[in-house]
Design brief:
The protein is of the alpha+beta class. The chain has a single domain (6-91), classed as Vaccinia Virus protein VP39 (Rossmann fold). The chain has 3 helices and 3 strands, in the order ααβαββ. Strand 2 (74-80) and strand 3 (85-91) form a beta hairpin.
């Protein structure tokens, strides 16, 4: 899912900018536009107790978690220092 803020795409490595479609990176003004849309729709297709996971940056994790909460999901943030990865996990309540 795209999570790079539009104004930061130019800071990405050249190989990513030149060889991957812009749509695979551009997450809107703050990088969370698509994450918010997916979270908002999740209750209509997730089973009760089902999970939605999105990769995000460490800097965006709290805002993404808030978007999950606003969408009625129960969020938690999972981090892996070894993989340099941050994932927001949202569970649809039972």
């Amino acid at each position: 899912m795209p999570y790079v803020p539009t104004d930061e795409i130019s800071l990405m490595p050249t190989e990513a900018r030149e060889h991957e479609p812009n749509a695979t990176h551009d997450g809107g003004r703050d990088g969370l536009a698509i994450a918010r849309r997916v979270a908002a729709a999740a209750a209509s297709w997730l089973n009760p107790g089902g999970y939605l996971l999105i990769e995000t940056s460490e800097e965006q994790a709290d805002a993404a978690s808030a978007a999950f909460t606003a969408a009625g999901l129960l969020p938690r943030i999972a981090r892996s220092a070894a993989l340099y990865a941050t994932v927001v996990v949202g569970r649809r309540p039972l």
